[in-house]
């Protein structure tokens, strides 16, 4: 009996090792078809650091030189974004996928100086592309290059986004950074390029489910009905019940569900081409540096909303939202049915009475991946995945830099900045050098657990 109990303990150690390794894997972004979590606005892929100069970070008694400047991203569906980093002590991942995010879902949500960053963006390069005028405004007599302007702007932003002690290497860039930092004023967060509010509705078939209100700075949006609208009979209509294929800011949309429809769910999508407002935040589930928008071409933006219906029983509408002020993910359930809806979250049950709504915050640690599936009646299943990314690493130890030979952001390494074969210098900042240590520890746990199991089995065999 004693030997069997020890074997179970060893097995638990092995499982712990596997869990540690799995946590590293789970930090990767989920595929689009794996999650029901809707993204509103622009989605893009990081192309790299395009216009930049050098800066020096003074941290913990050490000086580290990094590249500082303007990134570019390619928008899904067409368009280009220019961004600056607001997450100095984290790495920028190669070809990372980004999505437009409210400030509340980033470190900017708890940063009382975030509005000053928006002011800097509006009063510097590339929004002000007359470099002679920008130099004159900053009292710079030697003129400004695009590289100086980008570096100076990034340095000023880092001082507010990360509270960093950082200086531009070039004197003109440093003078611009000082001017922007001292002149900045707090401005409100810009509106999203496009959102649907609320992102989920529910109700009984035979009635109009909604409203879902369109919020956008675009002149108009195209409205796409559910993919199986022809078979299900579900239509997207206005308040008058007439089908809608195009909408404007403030338009209210409804799901028209046939009275005899079986319990089910559907989605609508709106899409537009517009310039994304300067100051919008962009995050990546791969833990790539949080970015803030400095400029946008005409770009494709979209948003989705879902509807759930049933003739009787609980009828939940489910949505999720990362909240960096609370340090977790808010799961919201709205029950438009005639019976209570009960769901489980992290081992605890939560009940939403008929006709009521409830928001439950799932607390998470910084950088912790989450993967939550909430089920309901009639096969309803909503999966929410991501990684909580709420803090900059201003208190982290020394930052490191690395260069690559192609124009895309580098992952963190231990080498100092050099020039690649193509002449492209790209720096990444952060504590990512710990990743091999963590991964090695996880693998070590697996190996140790396995070794313990083998030894115990041999002992049991000898005793038998």
Provide structural commentary:
Helix 2 runs antiparallel to helix 4. The chain is of the alpha+beta class and 464 residues long. Strands 1-2-3-15-14-4 form a six-stranded antiparallel barrel. A five-stranded mixed sheet has the order 7-16-13-9-11, with no helix packed on it. It has a four-stranded antiparallel sheet with strand order 6-8-12-10, with no helix packed on it. Helices cover 22% and strands 33% of the residues. The chain contains seven helices and 23 strands.
Total number of β-strand segments? 23
* SSE sequence, one letter per element: HEEEEHHHEHEEEEHEEEEEEEEEEEEEEH
- The structural class is alpha+beta
Query: Helical proportion?
Result: 10-25%
Number of helices: 7
Portion of residues in beta strands equals 25-35%
Low-confidence stretches: 1-36, 394-464
For the largest beta sheet, what order do the strands appear in spatially? 1-2-3-15-14-4
Query: Overall pLDDT, averaged?
Result: 80
Radius of gyration: 26 Å
Largest sheet: 6 strands, antiparallel, barrel
N-end to C-end Cα span:
12 Å
Structural shape: elongated
Question: What are the main properties of this structure?
Answer:
elongated; alpha+beta; disordered N terminus; single chain; six-stranded antiparallel β-barrel; five-stranded mixed beta sheet; 464 residues; 22% helix; 7 helices
Provide the fold topology.
Layout: H1 2-26, E1 43-59, E2 62-75, E3 80-85, E4 97-101, H2 114-122, H3 131-138, H4 146-161, E5 166-168, H5 171-183, E6 194-197, E7 200-203, E8 208-216, E9 221-224, H6 229-232, E10 235-237, E11 246-247, E12 252-256, E13 264-274, E14 281-283, E15 291-296, E16 299-309, E17 316-323, E18 328-335, E19 341-345, E20 348-352, E21 357-363, E22 369-375, E23 381-387, H7 435-463
Parallel strand pairs: 7-16
Antiparallel strand pairs: 1-2, 1-4, 1-5, 2-3, 3-15, 4-14, 6-8, 8-12, 9-11, 9-13, 10-12, 13-16, 14-15, 17-18, 18-21, 19-20, 22-23
Helix pairs in contact: 1-7, 2-4, 4-5
